[in-house]
TrEMBL record, chains A, B:
PANTHER family assigned: HISTIDINE--TRNA LIGASE, HISTIDYL-TRNA SYNTHETASE
GO terms for MF: ATP binding; histidine-tRNA ligase activity
Annotated protein name in UniProt: histidine--tRNA ligase
Enzyme class: ligase
Matching Pfam families: HGTP_anticodon, tRNA-synt_His
Family, per entry: Belongs to the class-II aminoacyl-tRNA synthetase family.
Reaction(s) the record says it catalyses: tRNA(His) + L-histidine + ATP = L-histidyl-tRNA(His) + AMP + diphosphate + H(+)
Keyword list, A-Z: Aminoacyl-tRNA synthetase, ATP-binding, Ligase, Nucleotide-binding, Protein biosynthesis
Binding sites annotated in the UniProt record for L-histidine: D106, L107, T108, R133, Q149, D153, R303, Y307, Y308
Tagged with keyword Nucleotide-binding: yes
E.C. no: 6.1.1.21
Length: 475, 475
């Protein structure tokens, strides 16, 4: 332990020295920016994001989900050994005394930690939060070091394919409600892949690495993947060919039925058979959910993460370059990694690629330019000078009646400037006060779009505004 | 630069060695917990938090606010020199190559950075996000290292007290809507304090430190504060007494009027006079907003932060031990610290103490036990075995009609268990399917509270459910 602390001291000294040198070097050249790979979200972006997330959350709530939240950082050990090669992308906090901490890398591992720690054996929850990856950001392609994840998971010991089918249904409802365009949800089963590897004669200890190669089929051709299997992973030509004969298959229930009836080789593998039976049941349930045109059994789907143990799926937008917008699968052993007695809590989840969805919908919104950043219903304007006190009184009346209202923070703003603000911000109504209106006990109610103005007695103003807003909403 | 990179390499080698040794040392003694000073929020807590935040956001929106978001970490230099002594509480990220980063300490400094960086000169925005402080957490008193802040700010060059009055109005609307109990909003002005110090003969360079002493009057007696001023800060007895004669004053517009008419000493100070005139105007505006019973001019209010330049305020719940639940003030020079040309953007803001509000409302909710964690409207139950496919079909019908529904993920759940789940989770309606109901084309609709059951034809089910839900909502 002495040795350890000595190293610690040396490191601290060197780091201090380094910091000093850098401080000197950097004084005066402090650039005003957000950290690499991060960004601010302005009012426009937030308005879009919140409207998208509201729609997604309403789907989750329609399916009875609760929500939880976990800290942005975890003990370093919680994340250790969960992400394989990607562990190098984890952000660590500085050692300022106390525990070793890391920023969360996804929401799944903290969720599993939460379940184990609180001995929760069943829950249906969603969580929307930012995660952190020290990736080389390719920000033009929508990849950041800080980004939102939006996860829905079902934990619990349940009967086969019932939670799976609901996850697929949720993905499809989300994509429908966002009107993202035509899409398919590809499904596969880890046991089918294992069965194929068994049939092909791949040694057990190569299952995972060969699975990773298969996972690349969405970006590489079969020839390229085959060459990786043979040249990099040491598979024989004939084994690779057997794999190739399977992973190029895709279809619907007919394909499952065909394999179950005709492929005696794959059905002879216990894993292969179990996987096929599971997918057959999943497709039956999906059909009852009206998803037969959306779900596609795709044997090339492998998914990168090691922790999947059953059904896996991925939603892909067809046409254009949007690509994958949701993915997930069953992970029955992750919670057990955190439980002192290694008790398993079976889980299945889906993670929506909200950043990608945001970009697509942002581009679309920019074309439309219709998105408002505030919800102001009435702007209180004055037509002449010295009416600020009257404006304040009017604002109070509106706020007390739960009408969204604002006014200028200038004593004597110009009427034209006030009306322009309303046009820019999309405020539908203006309540205009002049000395004449105050004396007569009325406000001039102006519809911004039509520019129609009507005098309304103050006593009827709130009701009149409500009526106008309702009729505008219906249009 | 060679020297720098050599140090970097040495550090990396030593750190790697240290990490290896620690890995070995720590295997097996990993405790399952969240980091010190942090916590998970379970479904109950999240349901409460979201309902509280929804109410707060609806107040912000009623006043026409937009929202923005900033990264959870900033360049270290952005935070440097903004928090005085508290800078030691800032969390730094580990040096993993690249920029020096720190977790945000509040939302105000990132907001100022955002304004300067984007050259925004006026905005009315709210932001709700977590901030990080390496404080010694006293978690029983509701203090954490990771906690929510909820800020509303108005930036822009406006006429005196118009934004100030609206901030006070917003605080009062939030506290009213949360039914937190009786409260006052104390207001004061930094210039009045400066005027008092001037009148008392405090040297200029002691204004800030004496201001900090005054700030302690909410926790310490005047005698204790006076002793600190004299013994620790080197003020004379008579100077302290003059300060004491002021900071023990509080009242309404009458007090401001009295000081303006009678206190020729304070009115002779340019700062004192300007501050009093400002507060007089603010109180007039607040009266128009119906806040005369809520706002109190309190000369002991000082607020800790250095960056305030004008009106300051703090909302305090009366009676009980809740204390301060909101605070803020004007800070006209913070944005200039980030602008290369030091252009100022005047700002005023309020930060709601949402964690304290959560604790109070959480305690209250626990007493009530009424809070639901899901919004499920109909539970789809089966009364006999082998009805899972029928349940799936029924769920689809309900979801497609935008009715919030769930069912058991077990093939053959017991009816009693299904009904118990509904009672526990507060689900109002159950749609029960038996073989008989399926054959007759009906569902048995059960109201959970009354236990009344009625057979409803499938074709009328959705309408009947909507009708029932509406009439339940009205009760």
């Amino acid at each position: 332990m002495l040795f350890l602390s000595q190293i610690g001291e040396e490191v601290a000294k060197l780091l201090e020295l380094k910091a000093k040198l850098e401080d000197v070097a950097e004084v005066g050249k402090f650039t005003l920016k957000t950290p690499k790979g991060t960004r601010d979200y302005g009012p426009q972006q937030m308005a879009l994001r919140n409207s998208v997330l509201d729609k997604i959350v309403s789907v989750f709530k329609r399916h009875g989900a609760e929500t939880i939240d976990t800290p942005v950082f975890e003990l370093k050990e919680v994340l250790t050994g969960k992400y394989g090669e990607d562990s190098k992308l984890i952000y660590d906090l500085a050692d300022q005394g106390g525990e070793s901490l890391s920023l969360r890398y996804d929401l799944t591992v903290p969720f599993a930690r939460y379940l184990a720690m609180n001995k929760i054996t069943n829950i249906k929850r969603y969580q929307i939060a930012k995660v952190y990856r020290r990736d080389n950001p390719a920000m033009t392609r929508g990849r950041y070091r800080e980004f939102y994840q939006c996860d829905f998971d079902i934990a619990g010991q349940y009967d086969p394919m019932l939670p799976e089918a609901e996850c697929v249904k949720i993905v499809s409802e989300v994509l429908d409600t966002l009107q993202i365009g035509k899409y398919v949800v590809k499904v596969n089963h880890r046991s089918i892949l294992d069965g194929i590897f068994e049939v092909a004669g791949v040694p057990d200890d190569k299952f995972r690495t060969i699975c990773s190669s298969v996972d690349k089929l969405d970006k590489l051709s079969w020839e390229e993947v085959k060459s990786e299997m043979i040249n990099e992973k040491g598979l024989g030509e004939s084994e690779a060919e057997v794999i190739g004969s399977y992973v190029r298959l895709n279809g619907g229930r007919d394909l499952v039925d065909k394999l179950m009836v005709e492929d005696t080789r794959l059905m002879a593998s216990k894993k292969g058979r179990a996987g096929l039976e599971a997918v057959a049941l999943l497709l039956q349930y999906c059909q009852l959910y009206g998803l037969e045109d959306v779900v596609k059994f795709d044997l090339s789907l492998a998914r990168g993460l090691d922790y999947y143990t059953g059904v896996i799926y991925e939603a892909v937008v067809l046409g254009g370059d949007v690509g994958s917008v949701a993915g997930g699968g069953r992970y029955d052993t992750l919670v057990a990694m955190f439980d002192p007695k290694h008790r398993a809590v079976p889980c299945i989840g889906v993670s929506l690629g909200v950043e990608r969805l945001f970009s697509v919908l942002e581009a679309r919104a920019e074309a439309d330019k219709k998105l408002r950043t505030t919800e102001v219903e009435v702007y209180v304007a004055s037509a002449q000078k010295n009416l600020v006190l009257e404006r304040l009184k009017l604002c109070k009346e509106l706020w007390d009646a739960n009408i969204k209202a604002e006014h200028s923070y200038k004593n004597n703003p110009k009427l034209l400037a006030q009306l322009q603000h309303c046009e820019e911000m999309g405020v539908p109504l203006v309540a205009i006060l002049g000395q004449d209106e105050v004396a007569r006990g009325v406000v001039k109610l102006r519809e911004v779009v039509t520019r129609q103005e009507t005098d309304v007695p103050r006593s009827e103003m709130v009701n009149e505004i409500r009526k106008r807003l309702q009729s505008m909403q219906k249009q």
